[in-house]
Design a protein that fits this description.
597 residues; FAD/NAD(P)-binding domain; 3 domains; 17 helices; 23% strand
Length: 597
């Protein structure tokens, strides 16, 4: 079959991009329908990549190499029953692109499965006969489509309803949960919690968000005074509701917090503020949780949701290290999580432990308020200019495509492709930032570009820190305006500050611990117990298959899910997590695949 296909293509050297894509899709579907692994493998480059998000495997599953891809597709097809592959109507047209230094043909495709509709991205090598990269995703469940566009709600809640409850009455009653239990309990009301709640609402899954803060959006409002997002606005929209076109490129934290509050109301999200998740246990027989939530007044309620989604984010529980002599320090100690601004420290001496983004930003804030500030470096750090270097990783979003299309393309890459993309970007970053890097090193700053040359983005994926997106503090360090002290030069902390190994004391009135956060696994341990934490394993970081560990997909603990990441990641993957929960609610979620944890 492959020889015939090659002959047909070779006779049509002037075939359009659309023709090449359509021919490949036709040959692909024929091989899929016939269960012909040999013919299927012949359609892929030897070093090709397939990433499936739910459509074939009910999981986030990466595959590499023509033979492995073909075998996995043929094995999954009897259950998936994928068919009708075609160029997606109304989407970005098929086009020639350059990706990862190679010319390719890129097309957005659509298809059907046994239970729903799928989308995908096909990337053919430049000749147009073999696939280099293929993404397949489940986009919606037949009969359970989202209530958007032409399917927007028109029920009684939105009618005039003379003599009965109006919309506000019904929203108030819905949010109280006086007469029912939520199907899903979401712990955390930042971008992760709001995004998945909004998605679930459009699928008619009864969802409650709980957050310990007093107001929706306080997860951003309460962070340090000078904080603004470090990537541009067009990357960061929430599901369904883009930011206004009048907004700035880099959104200030309070502006974002206010938007979260508005978003929750506009998306009709049931949200309990001032409510902490105190703990829970899973009832395997009843297939639900016994989940205790505690209000700020000390009152408690036990909820019985079928699902719990931890959405407290990568930056959840502050990590406070054990520091020799810290108990003897007479000054103020505060974790970066609780730092406001430097106005109270004018004319005083401050130490900031940590050279990540928060550490540098806080040091710059203290310096700007007149504090004599020194930053303490514990380990080698990747420093990247916000503009132009950090922008390189979002170049896809600068191509001018519709956001949904860009998000789909962004979800295409498997781990080896992600690594390669970041390596290529870092090569340019190092060139852009050469003067800054040399200046930092001259000051004794320990600098690196990641363990495999992948820079800050893979550090974020692997451990959630270890980098600084430079908003100006790098030059302050280079110029000596902000001091630099290596942690291994410190013997211990004493009453007046940090005692160096040479016997001198670096005086301090304030010590800020910009020492990062525990992963969500720690929240599991504290609230659901050691057994569940051990069963689930690592949360965030890179799993054995190259995907994010236990993130946005089924975990080894029934009814337990995790949602975290940047605003873009939460926007993209909230759709797929919501689809899995909805499919399980409707009895449609397929059996665990061999790639499941």
């Amino acid at each position: 079959m492959d020889d015939v296909g090659q002959a047909v293509l070779s006779k049509r050297p002037a075939a359009s991009v659309e023709q090449l894509v359509s021919q490949w899709l036709g040959a692909f579907e024929a091989a899929l329908r016939a269960g012909d692994a040999e013919a299927m493998a012949a359609l892929f480059e030897p070093d090709s990549h397939w990433r499936d998000i739910l459509a074939f495997t009910w999981h986030i599953s990466p595959f590499r190499g023509a033979s492995d891809i073909a075998a996995a597709m043929i094995a999954a097809q009897p259950a998936a029953q994928a068919h009708s592959f075609r160029i997606a109507a109304g989407r970005t047209p098929s086009r020639r692109v350059r990706r990862l230094g190679a010319d390719a043909i890129e097309a957005i495709v659509e298809f059907e499965t046994a239970i729903g509709r799928g989308n995908g991205v096909l990337r053919l090598s430049a000749g147009g006969t073999k696939a280099w990269v293929f993404l397949t995703t489940l986009e919606e469940l037949t009969g359970f489509e989202e209530h958007v566009g032409a399917r927007r709600p028109t029920g009684e809640a939105y009618s005039r309803n003379f003599g009965g409850e109006n919309w506000l009455d019904q929203r108030t009653r819905s949010e109280a949960y006086a007469d029912r239990e939520p199907s899903v309990l979401i712990v955390g009301g930042g971008q992760a919690g709001l995004g998945i709640a909004a998605r679930l609402n459009q699928l008619d899954v009864d969802t409650l968000v709980v957050d310990q803060h007093e107001r929706i959006g306080d997860c951003w409002r309460k962070r340090y005074h000078s904080l603004a997002l470090h990537n541009q606005i067009h990357v960061n929209h929430l599901p369904y509701m883009p930011f206004p076109p009048t907004w700035p490129k880099y959104i200030p934290k309070d502006m974002l917090g206010n938007w979260f509050e508005y978003y929750a109301g506009a998306m009709e999200i049931n949200f309990w503020t001032g409510t902490a998740f105190a703990g829970g246990a899973y009832d395997g027989d009843a297939k639900c949780w016994s989940a205790v939530v505690r209000k700020t007044d000390g009152s408690e309620r036990t909820l019985r949701p079928r699902h719990i989604v931890f959405a407290n984010g990568v930056s959840g529980i502050p990590r406070v290290p054990s520091l020799a002599g810290l108990e003897a320090f007479d000054g103020t100690v505060v974790h970066s999580h609780n730092f406001g601004d430097g106005s109270a420290w004018k004319g005083k001496k401050a130490l900031v432990l940590g050279t990540g983004t928060s550490g540098h930003d806080i040091a710059q804030d203290l310096h700007s308020h007149g504090a004599d500030t020194t930053i303490i470096q514990r380990g080698s750090t990747t420093v990247v200019s916000i503009d132009p270097s950090a922008k390189l990783n979002y170049a896809l979003y600068d191509e001018g495509l519709p956001l949904d299309d860009t998000d789909l393309i962004a979800a295409t890459a498997t781990y080896p492709l992600v690594v390669r993309a970041y390596q290529l970007a870092v090569e340019r970053m190092v060139d852009f930032d050469k003067a800054m890097i040399e200046g930092l090193k001259a000051r004794g700053f320990k600098y690196d570009i990641g363990e495999d040359g992948t820079g800050h983005q893979m550090k974020y994926r692997r451990r959630g820190g270890g980098y600084y997106l430079d908003a100006g503090c790098a030059q302050l360090v280079i110029d000596g305006e902000v001091g630099l002290l290596q942690f291994d030069a410190i013997d211990r902390f004493v009453a007046g500050g940090a005692l160096r190994r040479d016997g001198t004391v670096v005086p301090a009135d304030l010590l800020v611990l910009a020492t990062g956060y525990y992963t969500q696994q720690e929240l599991v341990r504290r609230t659901l117990g050691e057994d569940v934490a051990a069963r689930v394993g690592p949360v965030w970081g890179i799993g054995g298959d190259g995907e994010m560990a236990n993130m946005w997909k089924r975990t080894p603990q029934d009814g337990l899910w995790f949602m975290a990441g940047s605003l873009a990641q939460c926007r993209i993957y909230s759709k797929y997590l919501a689809l899995q929960i909805k499919a399980q609610e409707e009895g449609l979620l397929g059996p665990r695949s061999p790639t499941d944890p």
